[in-house]
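Exercise 7. Given the encoded structure of a 408-residue chain, write a plausible sequence.
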């Protein structure tokens, strides 16, 4: 009975997500330590990387989105079946933790695929529950949450492609890479982004800032179109006809246009930011800046020379992935989580947030340096030590954050 009570408590799930985020950061530290000093020979770096990325996606980001949406529905007093969402989050946690250990042990094999399928099923259930529970209720946030959950399911095409082509990556290298980018694109730019926009609009509504149905419909359609077709940005490393590059250039313009409209709408209602605590203002500035920067990146990707260099260089790929997932999405999720939890230890919370912001920016700075050394043929400097330092800072910041929210 006590456990069931905890499951219904949103703060329980949000604290669990932050603990998972700590584990993600811990594996990240081990990976960077392994690059610099090397771990025992029986630790496979590639398997560790797969464990890190899958647990980040399902144990941290997806789990936090599920918990925040559940909190949203609870606060709006929607007539939902609580046990369905609690079961969904529990199944996702089982799948995520299973992936953490199974990928660490052996990469892609039958057990890790079983746990991957389990987490995918939780995403499918999330999509079904949202469609069912919001179909008769009009709320601009629901449009984004439904589209986001659709992309979560849609991205699974890439997951199953990865599962098949991993064992035959030499024979199907192009399809393996295409499957990887398909999955990443529709997770990052689809599920994660749309869900965060939906949760952000909910936040605006709570601060008495409403978005008109007309504007919301226009923005959601523009972003949906640019995201669905925008997968092409992730395939330009394959030989691409000029007419397709021109077509995707116009898709990039649509995305930029939608971003400008949304930013203008929010910028006219910035009172809610100025009234919020300083540590929340810092988080807001970080993730909103990434949202704007992201709108310009497709134009860079459409340059064939840059593309060939970028998509095959790990420094550039890691700089982009961490910019979006860590500096953008994760910072937003921390921002939203803090708002929901009633945190007593404000001093430790403030320190944890500023330390975390410093860590993610410090990390991105050195990842960007690694990318620039490739782009401009600069003399490469050893970044491994400073990337390890930045990952330790992030790890400690998340630990302090977890301590500060533990008794909320």
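Solution.
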């Amino acid at each position: 009975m006590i456990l069931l009570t905890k499951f219904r408590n949103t703060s329980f799930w949000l604290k669990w997500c932050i603990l998972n985020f700590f584990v993600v950061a811990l594996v990240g530290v081990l990976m960077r330590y392994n690059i610099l000093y090397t771990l025992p020979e029986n630790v496979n770096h590639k398997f560790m990387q797969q464990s890190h990325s899958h647990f980040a996606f399902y144990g941290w980001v997806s789990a936090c989105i599920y918990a925040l949406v559940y909190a949203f529905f609870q606060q709006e007093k929607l007539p939902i079946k609580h046990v369905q969402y609690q079961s969904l989050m529990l199944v996702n946690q089982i799948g995520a933790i299973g992936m953490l250990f199974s990928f660490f042990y052996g990469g892609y094999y039958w057990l890790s695929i079983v746990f991957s399928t389990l987490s995918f099923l939780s995403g499918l259930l999330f999509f079904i529950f949202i469609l069912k529970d919001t179909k008769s209720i009009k709320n601009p946030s629901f449009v984004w949450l439904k589209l986001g959950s659709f992309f979560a399911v849609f991205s699974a095409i890439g997951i199953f492609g990865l599962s098949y082509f991993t064992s035959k990556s030499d024979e199907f290298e192009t399809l393996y890479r295409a499957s990887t980018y398909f999955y990443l694109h529709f997770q990052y730019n689809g599920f994660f982004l749309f869900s965060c926009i939906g949760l952000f609009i909910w936040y605006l509504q709570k601060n008495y800032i409403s978005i008109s149905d007309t504007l919301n419909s226009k923005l959601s359609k523009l972003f949906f179109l640019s995201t669905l077709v925008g997968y092409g940005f992730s395939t330009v490393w394959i030989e691409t006809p000029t007419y397709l590059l021109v077509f995707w250039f116009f898709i990039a313009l649509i995305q930029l246009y939608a971003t400008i409209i949304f930013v203008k709408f929010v910028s006219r209602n910035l009172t809610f930011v100025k009234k919020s605590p300083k540590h929340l203002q810092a988080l807001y500035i970080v993730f909103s800046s990434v949202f704007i920067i992201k709108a310009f990146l497709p134009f860079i990707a459409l340059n064939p020379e840059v593309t060939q260099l970028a998509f095959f260089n790990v420094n550039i790929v890691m700089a982009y992935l961490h910019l979006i997932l860590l500096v953008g999405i994760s910072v937003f999720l921390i921002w939203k989580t803090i708002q929901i939890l009633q945190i007593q230890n404000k001093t430790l919370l403030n320190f944890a947030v500023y330390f975390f912001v410093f860590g993610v920016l410090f990390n991105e700075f050195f990842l960007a340096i690694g990318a620039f050394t490739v782009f401009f043929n600069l003399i490469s400097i050893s970044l491994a030590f400073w990337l390890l330092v930045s990952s330790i800072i992030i790890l400690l910041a998340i630990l302090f954050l977890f301590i500060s929210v533990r008794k909320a």
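Remark. The chain has a mean pLDDT of 88. Students should compare their own answers with the one above.
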